Amino acid sequence: MKDSTLVSKSNALIEAEYTLSLVAQRVIVLAIIEARNQGDLIKAGGLLRIKATEYQQCFDCALPMAYESLRSACDNLYEADFSYWDKDEVGRDKFNKSRFVQKASYVKGGGYVEIMFGSEVIPLITRLSEKYTEYELSQIKDLNSVYALRLFELLMQWQSTGKTAPVLISDLRSKLGVEESHYKQMCDFKKRVLDSAVKEINDNTNIKVKYEQIKEGRKIIAFTFKFTVKKTPKKPVINARDPDTIDIFTGVTDKGVKAFKPMTIGQITFFASLIAKDPSFNSSENGLIAKVGESDKDYQMRVQRSLNDYENQVKWLDYLLKHNFKTE
Asked: Which residue from 113, 152, 217, 322 has the highest number of Cβ atoms inside 10 Å of its Cβ?
Protein backbone atom coordinates (compact mmCIF):
# COMPACT_ATOMS: atom_id res chain seq x y z
CA MET A 1 0.00 0.00 0.00
CA LYS A 2 1.10 3.56 -0.61
CA ASP A 3 1.66 6.30 1.97
CA SER A 4 -0.50 6.00 5.09
CA THR A 5 -2.14 2.71 6.07
CA LEU A 6 -4.42 4.42 8.58
CA VAL A 7 -8.09 3.38 8.48
CA SER A 8 -10.59 6.08 9.51
CA LYS A 9 -14.34 5.60 9.83
CA SER A 10 -17.07 7.64 11.45
CA ASN A 11 -18.55 5.99 14.52
CA ALA A 12 -21.89 5.93 12.71
CA LEU A 13 -20.37 3.63 10.08
CA ILE A 14 -18.62 1.51 12.72
CA GLU A 15 -21.96 0.98 14.47
CA ALA A 16 -24.01 0.54 11.29
CA GLU A 17 -26.08 -2.59 10.72
CA TYR A 18 -24.97 -4.68 7.74
CA THR A 19 -23.93 -8.15 6.68
CA LEU A 20 -20.76 -8.40 4.59
CA SER A 21 -18.25 -11.15 3.90
CA LEU A 22 -14.76 -10.87 5.36
CA VAL A 23 -13.19 -10.19 1.95
CA ALA A 24 -15.74 -7.45 1.21
CA GLN A 25 -14.94 -5.77 4.53
CA ARG A 26 -11.23 -6.02 3.76
CA VAL A 27 -11.77 -4.40 0.36
CA ILE A 28 -13.65 -1.54 2.05
CA VAL A 29 -10.69 -1.06 4.40
CA LEU A 30 -8.25 -0.97 1.47
CA ALA A 31 -10.54 1.42 -0.43
CA ILE A 32 -10.73 3.79 2.56
CA ILE A 33 -6.93 3.85 2.71
CA GLU A 34 -6.74 4.47 -1.04
CA ALA A 35 -9.33 7.26 -0.71
CA ARG A 36 -7.24 9.01 1.94
CA ASN A 37 -4.12 8.71 -0.21
CA GLN A 38 -5.92 10.08 -3.26
CA GLY A 39 -7.11 13.14 -1.37
CA ASP A 40 -9.55 15.25 -3.37
CA LEU A 41 -10.54 12.49 -5.82
CA ILE A 42 -12.81 10.74 -3.34
CA LYS A 43 -14.67 13.99 -2.65
CA ALA A 44 -15.78 13.96 -6.27
CA GLY A 45 -16.95 10.36 -6.03
CA GLY A 46 -14.04 8.98 -8.02
CA LEU A 47 -13.16 5.37 -8.77
CA LEU A 48 -10.89 3.58 -6.34
CA ARG A 49 -8.68 0.81 -7.72
CA ILE A 50 -7.68 -2.09 -5.47
CA LYS A 51 -5.00 -4.40 -6.87
CA ALA A 52 -4.80 -8.13 -6.18
CA THR A 53 -1.10 -7.73 -5.35
CA GLU A 54 -2.01 -5.20 -2.64
CA TYR A 55 -4.60 -7.55 -1.18
CA GLN A 56 -2.05 -10.39 -1.27
CA GLN A 57 0.58 -8.27 0.48
CA CYS A 58 -1.76 -6.93 3.18
CA PHE A 59 -3.52 -10.18 4.05
CA ASP A 60 -0.77 -12.70 3.33
CA CYS A 61 -2.53 -14.99 0.88
CA ALA A 62 -1.68 -16.61 -2.45
CA LEU A 63 -2.15 -14.42 -5.52
CA PRO A 64 -4.85 -16.67 -7.10
CA MET A 65 -6.80 -16.44 -3.83
CA ALA A 66 -6.40 -12.65 -3.87
CA TYR A 67 -7.86 -12.55 -7.40
CA GLU A 68 -10.84 -14.68 -6.37
CA SER A 69 -11.33 -12.66 -3.16
CA LEU A 70 -11.57 -9.40 -5.09
CA ARG A 71 -14.04 -10.90 -7.58
CA SER A 72 -16.34 -12.22 -4.85
CA ALA A 73 -16.03 -8.96 -2.90
CA CYS A 74 -17.31 -7.06 -5.94
CA ASP A 75 -20.49 -9.14 -6.04
CA ASN A 76 -21.05 -8.86 -2.29
CA LEU A 77 -20.43 -5.11 -2.11
CA TYR A 78 -22.74 -4.22 -4.97
CA GLU A 79 -25.65 -6.12 -3.43
CA ALA A 80 -25.03 -5.02 0.18
CA ASP A 81 -26.84 -2.24 2.00
CA PHE A 82 -26.38 -0.81 5.46
CA SER A 83 -28.41 1.22 7.95
CA TYR A 84 -27.25 3.75 10.51
CA TRP A 85 -28.43 6.54 12.80
CA ASP A 86 -27.51 10.20 12.72
CA LYS A 87 -29.21 13.57 13.38
CA ASP A 88 -31.31 15.83 11.18
CA GLU A 89 -30.76 19.60 10.96
CA VAL A 90 -32.59 20.26 14.25
CA GLY A 91 -31.01 17.40 16.18
CA ARG A 92 -33.69 14.73 15.87
CA ASP A 93 -32.65 11.06 15.50
CA LYS A 94 -32.71 9.97 11.87
CA PHE A 95 -32.57 6.36 10.63
CA ASN A 96 -30.86 5.93 7.25
CA LYS A 97 -30.66 3.04 4.79
CA SER A 98 -28.16 3.15 1.95
CA ARG A 99 -25.70 1.13 -0.17
CA PHE A 100 -21.95 0.87 0.21
CA VAL A 101 -21.10 1.33 -3.47
CA GLN A 102 -22.78 2.72 -6.54
CA LYS A 103 -20.41 0.87 -8.83
CA ALA A 104 -18.18 -2.21 -8.54
CA SER A 105 -16.08 -3.47 -11.46
CA TYR A 106 -13.96 -6.59 -11.81
CA VAL A 107 -11.59 -6.66 -14.78
CA LYS A 108 -11.03 -10.23 -15.95
CA GLY A 109 -7.29 -10.81 -16.22
CA GLY A 110 -6.58 -7.27 -15.01
CA GLY A 111 -5.66 -8.17 -11.45
CA TYR A 112 -7.72 -5.40 -9.87
CA VAL A 113 -11.19 -4.20 -8.99
CA GLU A 114 -12.61 -0.70 -9.05
CA ILE A 115 -15.30 0.56 -6.72
CA MET A 116 -17.11 3.85 -6.36
CA PHE A 117 -18.48 4.52 -2.89
CA GLY A 118 -22.11 5.54 -2.56
CA SER A 119 -22.81 9.19 -1.86
CA GLU A 120 -23.91 8.36 1.70
CA VAL A 121 -20.63 6.59 2.47
CA ILE A 122 -18.26 9.35 1.35
CA PRO A 123 -18.94 11.74 4.27
CA LEU A 124 -18.65 8.80 6.68
CA ILE A 125 -15.00 8.22 5.70
CA THR A 126 -13.84 11.74 4.78
CA ARG A 127 -15.59 14.34 6.97
CA LEU A 128 -14.14 13.15 10.22
CA SER A 129 -13.94 16.34 12.28
CA GLU A 130 -15.98 14.92 15.15
CA LYS A 131 -16.89 11.36 16.17
CA TYR A 132 -14.66 8.90 14.35
CA THR A 133 -12.43 5.88 14.93
CA GLU A 134 -8.91 5.23 13.66
CA TYR A 135 -6.64 2.20 13.59
CA GLU A 136 -3.73 0.90 11.55
CA LEU A 137 -4.24 -1.73 8.86
CA SER A 138 -1.53 -3.87 10.50
CA GLN A 139 -3.78 -4.28 13.56
CA ILE A 140 -6.48 -6.20 11.66
CA LYS A 141 -4.57 -7.90 8.82
CA ASP A 142 -4.43 -11.25 10.67
CA LEU A 143 -8.10 -11.35 11.65
CA ASN A 144 -9.81 -14.06 9.64
CA SER A 145 -13.44 -13.82 10.72
CA VAL A 146 -16.12 -11.21 10.16
CA TYR A 147 -17.09 -11.17 13.83
CA ALA A 148 -13.53 -10.56 15.05
CA LEU A 149 -13.05 -7.66 12.64
CA ARG A 150 -16.37 -6.04 13.53
CA LEU A 151 -15.77 -6.47 17.28
CA PHE A 152 -12.25 -5.00 16.99
CA GLU A 153 -13.61 -1.90 15.24
CA LEU A 154 -16.31 -1.49 17.89
CA LEU A 155 -13.68 -1.68 20.64
CA MET A 156 -11.49 0.92 18.93
CA GLN A 157 -14.21 3.51 19.57
CA TRP A 158 -13.31 3.22 23.25
CA GLN A 159 -9.52 3.58 22.98
CA SER A 160 -9.48 6.49 25.42
CA THR A 161 -11.02 4.45 28.25
CA GLY A 162 -10.33 0.80 27.44
CA LYS A 163 -13.87 -0.10 28.47
CA THR A 164 -17.13 -0.02 26.56
CA ALA A 165 -20.52 1.03 27.76
CA PRO A 166 -22.99 -1.86 28.21
CA VAL A 167 -24.10 -3.22 24.82
CA LEU A 168 -27.52 -4.85 24.63
CA ILE A 169 -27.62 -8.33 23.09
CA SER A 170 -29.79 -7.21 20.17
CA ASP A 171 -27.49 -4.26 19.43
CA LEU A 172 -24.37 -6.41 19.65
CA ARG A 173 -25.79 -8.99 17.26
CA SER A 174 -26.68 -6.34 14.68
CA LYS A 175 -23.35 -4.52 15.01
CA LEU A 176 -21.41 -7.76 14.57
CA GLY A 177 -23.49 -8.66 11.53
CA VAL A 178 -25.04 -11.80 13.04
CA GLU A 179 -28.06 -12.74 10.96
CA GLU A 180 -31.37 -12.98 12.79
CA SER A 181 -31.74 -16.72 12.15
CA HIS A 182 -28.23 -17.60 13.37
CA TYR A 183 -27.12 -18.57 16.89
CA LYS A 184 -30.38 -17.75 18.64
CA GLN A 185 -29.40 -19.65 21.79
CA MET A 186 -27.07 -17.69 24.09
CA CYS A 187 -24.71 -20.66 24.47
CA ASP A 188 -24.32 -20.84 20.67
CA PHE A 189 -23.89 -17.07 20.33
CA LYS A 190 -21.15 -17.01 22.97
CA LYS A 191 -19.35 -20.06 21.61
CA ARG A 192 -19.62 -19.42 17.87
CA VAL A 193 -19.46 -15.62 17.84
CA LEU A 194 -18.29 -13.90 21.00
CA ASP A 195 -15.71 -16.31 22.44
CA SER A 196 -14.15 -17.10 19.08
CA ALA A 197 -13.94 -13.38 18.15
CA VAL A 198 -12.36 -12.47 21.49
CA LYS A 199 -9.82 -15.28 21.17
CA GLU A 200 -8.91 -14.25 17.64
CA ILE A 201 -8.43 -10.63 18.69
CA ASN A 202 -6.31 -11.67 21.67
CA ASP A 203 -4.17 -13.93 19.50
CA ASN A 204 -3.71 -11.65 16.49
CA THR A 205 -3.91 -7.96 17.45
CA ASN A 206 -2.13 -5.54 19.76
CA ILE A 207 -4.89 -5.59 22.41
CA LYS A 208 -6.08 -8.04 25.05
CA VAL A 209 -9.83 -8.08 25.56
CA LYS A 210 -12.27 -9.72 27.94
CA TYR A 211 -16.01 -9.32 28.45
CA GLU A 212 -18.44 -9.30 31.35
CA GLN A 213 -22.09 -10.38 31.30
CA ILE A 214 -24.87 -8.14 32.58
CA LYS A 215 -27.89 -10.03 33.84
CA GLU A 216 -31.48 -9.24 34.66
CA GLY A 217 -32.36 -12.02 37.03
CA ARG A 218 -30.91 -15.13 35.40
CA LYS A 219 -31.10 -13.76 31.88
CA ILE A 220 -28.09 -12.19 30.14
CA ILE A 221 -29.23 -8.87 28.64
CA ALA A 222 -25.96 -7.12 27.76
CA PHE A 223 -22.17 -7.27 27.69
CA THR A 224 -19.37 -4.87 28.54
CA PHE A 225 -15.85 -5.21 27.15
CA LYS A 226 -12.53 -4.23 28.70
CA PHE A 227 -9.21 -4.19 26.85
CA THR A 228 -5.59 -3.20 27.30
CA VAL A 229 -2.65 -2.73 24.95
CA LYS A 230 -0.28 -5.69 24.98
CA LYS A 231 3.27 -5.31 26.17
CA THR A 232 5.69 -5.72 23.25
CA PRO A 233 8.21 -8.50 23.99
CA LYS A 234 11.68 -7.07 24.50
CA LYS A 235 14.78 -8.58 22.92
CA PRO A 236 17.04 -10.41 25.39
CA VAL A 237 19.98 -8.39 26.68
CA ILE A 238 23.27 -10.25 26.34
CA ASN A 239 25.56 -7.87 28.22
CA ALA A 240 23.66 -7.05 31.40
CA ARG A 241 24.66 -4.08 33.55
CA ASP A 242 24.13 -3.16 37.18
CA PRO A 243 20.33 -2.94 37.66
CA ASP A 244 20.86 0.14 39.85
CA THR A 245 22.63 2.03 37.03
CA ILE A 246 20.81 5.27 36.21
CA ASP A 247 20.06 5.59 32.50
CA ILE A 248 21.45 8.85 31.10
CA PHE A 249 18.41 9.35 28.88
CA THR A 250 15.52 8.44 31.16
CA GLY A 251 17.03 9.10 34.59
CA VAL A 252 15.52 5.78 35.71
CA THR A 253 17.44 2.69 36.80
CA ASP A 254 17.23 -0.58 34.85
CA LYS A 255 15.42 -1.99 37.86
CA GLY A 256 12.83 0.78 37.51
CA VAL A 257 12.36 0.13 33.80
CA LYS A 258 11.84 -3.59 34.41
CA ALA A 259 9.10 -2.68 36.88
CA PHE A 260 7.52 -0.38 34.30
CA LYS A 261 4.10 -1.79 33.44
CA PRO A 262 2.53 -1.05 30.03
CA MET A 263 0.42 2.11 30.04
CA THR A 264 -3.34 1.73 30.16
CA ILE A 265 -5.51 3.01 27.31
CA GLY A 266 -6.54 5.99 29.43
CA GLN A 267 -2.92 6.83 30.30
CA ILE A 268 -1.91 6.63 26.65
CA THR A 269 -4.62 9.11 25.67
CA PHE A 270 -3.88 11.49 28.56
CA PHE A 271 -0.09 11.57 28.26
CA ALA A 272 -0.18 11.70 24.46
CA SER A 273 -2.06 15.00 24.79
CA LEU A 274 0.64 16.32 27.13
CA ILE A 275 3.84 15.30 25.37
CA ALA A 276 2.42 16.25 21.95
CA LYS A 277 2.41 19.87 23.20
CA ASP A 278 5.96 19.60 24.59
CA PRO A 279 8.35 21.50 22.25
CA SER A 280 11.28 19.36 23.37
CA PHE A 281 9.37 16.25 22.23
CA ASN A 282 7.81 17.35 18.94
CA SER A 283 11.02 18.88 17.59
CA SER A 284 13.53 16.26 18.75
CA GLU A 285 14.72 13.11 17.01
CA ASN A 286 14.51 11.41 20.41
CA GLY A 287 10.76 12.16 20.38
CA LEU A 288 8.40 12.28 17.43
CA ILE A 289 8.95 15.14 15.02
CA ALA A 290 5.81 16.88 13.79
CA LYS A 291 5.30 16.87 10.02
CA VAL A 292 5.15 20.08 8.02
CA GLY A 293 1.50 21.17 7.72
CA GLU A 294 0.28 18.54 10.19
CA SER A 295 -2.54 19.82 12.42
CA ASP A 296 -2.17 19.68 16.21
CA LYS A 297 -5.03 17.13 16.40
CA ASP A 298 -3.52 14.85 13.73
CA TYR A 299 -0.10 15.03 15.42
CA GLN A 300 -1.59 14.17 18.82
CA MET A 301 -3.40 11.17 17.31
CA ARG A 302 -0.11 10.01 15.73
CA VAL A 303 1.62 10.27 19.13
CA GLN A 304 -1.26 8.36 20.73
CA ARG A 305 -1.05 5.55 18.17
CA SER A 306 2.73 5.35 18.64
CA LEU A 307 2.34 5.07 22.41
CA ASN A 308 0.32 1.88 21.92
CA ASP A 309 3.72 0.27 21.29
CA TYR A 310 5.38 -0.57 24.61
CA GLU A 311 8.84 -0.01 23.12
CA ASN A 312 7.90 3.61 22.43
CA GLN A 313 6.63 3.96 25.99
CA VAL A 314 10.07 2.95 27.22
CA LYS A 315 11.85 5.05 24.57
CA TRP A 316 9.93 8.19 25.56
CA LEU A 317 9.92 7.50 29.29
CA ASP A 318 11.91 10.66 30.04
CA TYR A 319 9.22 12.80 28.41
CA LEU A 320 6.49 10.90 30.26
CA LEU A 321 8.25 11.34 33.58
CA LYS A 322 8.62 15.04 32.84
CA HIS A 323 4.80 15.21 32.82
CA ASN A 324 4.46 13.30 36.11
CA PHE A 325 3.93 9.78 34.75
CA LYS A 326 4.57 7.18 37.46
CA THR A 327 6.30 3.91 36.55
CA GLU A 328 4.93 2.10 39.58
From this structure: 113
